[in-house]
Each structure stands twice: as structure tokens, then as C-alpha cells.
TrEMBL record:
Gene3D superfamilies: 3.10.20.10, Cytidine Deaminase, domain 2 (3.40.140.10). Residues 283-296 have a biased composition (Low complexity). Required for formate dehydrogenase (FDH) activity. Acts as a sulfur carrier protein that transfers sulfur from IscS to the molybdenum cofactor prior to its insertion into FDH. This is Sulfur carrier protein FdhD. One of its GO terms (cellular component) is cytoplasm. It is found in: Cytoplasm. Its main location: cytoplasm. One of its GO terms (biological process) is Mo-molybdopterin cofactor biosynthetic process. Residues 1-11 have a biased composition (Basic residues).
Amino acid sequence: MGRLTRRRRIVHYSSDTGPRGREETIAAEEPLEIRLGGRVFSITMRTPGNDFDLVAGFLVSEGVIGGPDELSSMRFCAGEDEDGRQTFNVVEAGLGEGAIIPDPSLDRHVFTSSSCGICGTASIDAVAKTSRFIVEPDSGRIGVGTLLGLSTTLRSSQELFGKTGGVHAAGLFDTDGNLLCLREDVGRHNAVDKVVGWALREGRLPLRDTVLQVSGRASFELVQKAYLAGIPVLCAVSAPSSLAVELAERAGLTVAAFARGSSVNLYTHPDRIDTDDSVDQQAPAHPAVAAPNNRK
């Protein structure tokens, strides 16, 4: 899988066999520097791959762009390792007409870690953004049986997780349960940005009749990213945070969480979910995730 993974010799211990050496596949994590107009806008830690989608989605999430015409160009630029080889870890983005040029005082001059997409924001005021898209009350209506099947579809499509056990996933679905786009990354916010960036580059924003299924919890940052992309439903395998629920309530998004097997909690705007839809038609319950076996 190229730069997506690394191989490493480890010691595996089992009470049955004791310590044994073996090779494991681990998910790659590298910095990505995002530049606007020749200056650094942000540095984020991510799994290499789909970097243009990541940059495009990040700019949507930051309120800089809202359509493909507002992103005039993207290119890899300076960035070499000690041997002079291109690392592909620096992307210069060109903004087009209609883009909102960020205030230099709000630039993220610190690393954004793979676990937190907003902890590097220069000002807490910059966290609260206004979406260019209205989330219509009638958009994103989906049957509960279809909704409950999304996590299984997502999990079965996670190739990188299957090899490493160390990445998050975000999947964009239509309301019939069809998977439109899946992205994996060590950072859950990066996975969502990659999905949103794909949608922007495909000219699909706003994502009105879609559901964003994520492999972890529903945090404030993920609700914000869904809101800024016009996604009406966010469904998570794990719990939401209080701030995520408050933002979703105000923004008109449906937050569904603990979506496992035959049950789900609907925290905001439950009217979008048709609970008369037969749960018997859903996919099998989300399987227990075992540690990956990476031995050759």
C-alpha cells in the first residue's frame, strides 16, 4: 500500500507462547503543510494519500471555500527528505474568485495533531463558523434499517484498517445506503476532510441527501465539518459530545450515535429517521473488531 503503511519488527507476547518476534504493518503518519499564497496556513498530521482531497476538505471546513471554482489550483511543492527525494508533504493551494482569504492572524502556525482538528486554531472565535449552505429539514431522510446497516458497510470497506487496525474511517452514503466515498486516515477529522474534499472536487456540494458515517465518536469538529458541507445526517459508532449535540441542534443536523446492531440513539432532529422502516432489512450487526494479524 505504498506510503500508507510501514513494516516494523516487533515482539509479540502471548501467555500461551511467550515472547516471539514478528513483523507488523502499521499505519503511516506524516506531516502535511498547507500553503496559501506562498505562506503556511496549517500543518496537520495525516496518513499520506488523497492529499488534494484533504486540502480541499480542510479549506471547506475552515470556511475558506464553498465550491470547486473557488479552488483554482493545487500542487505539491518544496519538501524533500535528507536524500533529496520529494516527500509530497507540502501542498500549495490557489484560491479562486469567491474564496474568503483567511485573516493572517488566524493562521495555524502550530501542528494540528491527528487526534484533534481544532486544537491548533489560533483563536477560539475562529471555531464558530457560518455555513454557506442551509441544511433543509426535508433533506437526508433515511429509514432506520438502512441507517443501521451503514456501519457494517463502512467496516467491511476499510482496507487500511484491516491491515493495520490503526486508522479511522469516514464514509459518505446516499439515503438508499449506497457508499459514495470512503476515506481512511490516522486522524478522524482528516478522514472527514478527505470525503468533503472529494465531494467539492466532484462538484457535489452541498451534500443535501447524504449521510456521513464515521467509525468513532461524534465530536464537535465532525459536526462542524458536516454542517459546512451541507450534510444533514451524521452517524457515529460511538458517543457524541455535548458540544457536538448543541451545535447539531442549532444547525439543523441529525446526530445519530451508538449505531450498532439493531439499535441507535437519535440525539437531534430525529424526524429525518423513518423508524417505521423495517430493522429486519438491515445489514448484520457490526462485528467485533479483532486485532489485525499481520504476520507474513
